[in-house]
Every structure is written in C-alpha cells, then in structure tokens.
C-alpha cells in the first residue's frame, strides 16, 4: 500500500520544462551558503532531500543565507530565478524586528512563470524591493536585496517553489513536499539549471580577540583588529553552521615563538548555527611581538567540512 501511494504521488516534469537560475548574487559556498533545505519528512520530524539534518519541521523552501549582518548591510542582490510576471510584492517590514501577524515572509516578491509554476522570495531587506505587481521580469533581474525581515533569525533569502497547488523542492521535485518521499539525494531531475553543491555544514567566520566575544557581535560581523602586546588574552573563535552532535572543532594559534594553543572541542547537540572559542591568558609582561595565525577546522566523523584562518599583528 505504501509503495503504491508513493508511486501515485510522484511527479514527472519533462527535462527542461522549468528551470531555475541561482536567485542570489553571491558565490555559493564562499560568500553565501544554504542554511536550510525543504523538509521531506511528512511526520513531525524533519530531514532535507539527502535525508540529512539541514531542515526543520514544515520548512517549505531553500534558505540562501549570508554569514553576518555586515554582509547584509553591504548589500547582496536577490535575482529572479526565471522569467515571469510579478503577482505581488511587500516592502516596509523592518529588519531585525517583531513582524505583524501574517507577515512571516517579511518583505518579498511573488512571480508567476506560467504553466502553473510560481516562485516566492522572502525576508528581503526593508526598502530594497525594486519591482511592482504586473511587471514582467527577466531571469536574473534584480528584485531587491537579502534581508532579515519577517520571521527570520538570520539574514537570508527564503525561496519557495510551487507547481499548481503543490510545494516543490527544486533539489528533489519528484514528490510534493508533505508526501511520502522517494529515496535520498538528488535524482538528476532537480530544477536547477546548474547543479548546486550540497554542503552539510561548515565554517562561516573565524577571528582572534582579547576575550571570548559576544555571540551577537559575531553574528553582526565582528572584526579582528591588531592587538597590543599587553592584550589580556588571545582567543581564537569560529562561527559555524549545520552542526551535529559529535562534530569536532579543531583550533590552532601560532605566533613568533611557535604554537600558542592546539585544542579540540566536541559539539554536544545539533545546532543550526553556533560558535566556539578557546584561548590563552597573558602570563608574562607582554606577548612576543609579531604575526599570529589562527585556524579553525570543522570535522564530522573524521571528514573535514570546512576551515578558515586569520592572521593579525600583536604589539607591532
């Protein structure tokens, strides 16, 4: 019975019938990343199209995220993923603020592409929407910018795709969201014109500071300026996403006199985003003056998911 139901719900879209281009003007995996995918588990649990953990219950789209609010402030354009006609827009919802009831999407754009296809773009920056209802848009046309309006915990574009009344995951469109899934992983029928890499977790930022930093400051885009030789401590921190219990975070800090620290931390519970920090207190009158290099590596079952490094000057 389950097998027959699964087959009856399968969708068959001819190759090239509808394709999507990347809807954000950033370098995926470098200056932006996918924080959450659509939820394919019809129960109260959640998993993404690979049967992985980058989703949450009921999530119906793809979240193209920026690593910090500083990146959002600099401005990253949201692009039409396919040509179509604008059905509706909303602007004027404040970023980083409580949102009015029924405005979870925040500032956004809804586009009709014909043949039952629609795309919706949510959480755009207040005041950035550049199109209006009834306007024809070309693929790649700027719609606005990535923001954090509506029900958004971090700066990102939430892209949702619909075909008629069905919510569709462009990474695995063979079954509507909420239906019994067919296998794990991409099947070659994804809607993206150019394949988008799946990154199960990784590094967002790294820094060196004189104390354990505030998490809000890291998410805002904390800089790592040069430090005086009398800094009370040297702390290496890493900001990460897609964490699972058992993931290992490796820290290393070296300076003119060699290794300052080498430590390993283990993640205890799943977290969409988190930071970890380790450091050494100043025990002499001053730190050896010169260049200091910090590095943070995220590993899962011995496989490296990402690494970032930074270099600052101390006392020079």
TrEMBL record:
<protein>
    <submittedName>
        <fullName>M23 family metallopeptidase</fullName>
        <ecNumber>3.4.24.-</ecNumber>
    </submittedName>
</protein>
<dbReference type="InterPro" id="IPR016047">
    <property type="entry name" value="M23ase_b-sheet_dom"/>
</dbReference>
<dbReference type="Pfam" id="PF01551">
    <property type="entry name" value="Peptidase_M23"/>
</dbReference>
<keyword id="KW-0378">Hydrolase</keyword>
<feature type="signal peptide">
    <location>
        <begin position="1"/>
        <end position="17"/>
    </location>
</feature>
<dbReference type="GO" id="GO:0016787">
    <property type="term" value="F:hydrolase activity"/>
</dbReference>
<dbReference type="InterPro" id="IPR011055">
    <property type="entry name" value="Dup_hybrid_motif"/>
</dbReference>
<dbReference type="InterPro" id="IPR050570">
    <property type="entry name" value="Cell_wall_metabolism_enzyme"/>
</dbReference>
<keyword id="KW-0732">Signal</keyword>
<feature type="domain" description="M23ase beta-sheet core">
    <location>
        <begin position="72"/>
        <end position="170"/>
    </location>
</feature>
């Amino acid at each position: 019975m389950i097998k027959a139901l699964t087959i009856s719900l399968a969708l068959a879209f001819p190759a090239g019938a509808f394709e999507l281009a990347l809807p954000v003007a950033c370098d995926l995996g470098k200056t932006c990343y996918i924080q959450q995918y659509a939820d394919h588990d019809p129960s109260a649990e959640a998993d993404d199209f690979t049967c992985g953990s980058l989703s949450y219950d009921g999530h119906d789209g793809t979240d193209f995220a920026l690593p910090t609010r500083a990146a959002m402030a600099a401005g990253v354009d949201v692009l039409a993923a396919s040509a179509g006609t604008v059905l509706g827009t909303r602007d004027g919802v404040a970023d980083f603020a409580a949102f009015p009831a029924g405005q979870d999407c925040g500032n956004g754009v809804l586009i009709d592409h014909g043949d039952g296809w629609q795309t919706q773009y949510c959480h755009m920056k207040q005041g950035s929407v550049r199109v209006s209802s009834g306007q024809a848009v070309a693929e790649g046309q700027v719609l606005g910018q990535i923001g954090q309006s509506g029900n958004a915990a971090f700066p990102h574009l939430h892209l949702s795709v619909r075909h008629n009344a069905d919510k569709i995951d462009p990474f695995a469109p063979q079954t509507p969201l909420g239906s019994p899934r067919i296998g794990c992983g991409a099947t070659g029928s994804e809607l993206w014109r150019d394949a988008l890499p799946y990154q199960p977790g990784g590094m967002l930022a790294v820094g060196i500071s004189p104390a354990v930093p505030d998490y809000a400051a890291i998410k805002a885009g904390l800089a790592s300026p040069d430090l005086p030789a009398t800094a009370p401590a040297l702390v290496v921190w890493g900001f990460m996403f897609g964490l699972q219990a058992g993931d290992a975070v490796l820290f290393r800090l070296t300076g003119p006199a060699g290794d300052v620290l080498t430590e390993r931390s283990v993640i205890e519970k799943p977290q969409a985003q988190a930071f970890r920090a380790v450091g050494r207190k100043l025990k002499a009158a001053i730190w050896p003056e010169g260049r200091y290099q910090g590095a943070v590596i995220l590993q899962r079952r011995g496989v490296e998911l990402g690494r970032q490094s930074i270099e600052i000057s101390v006392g020079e």
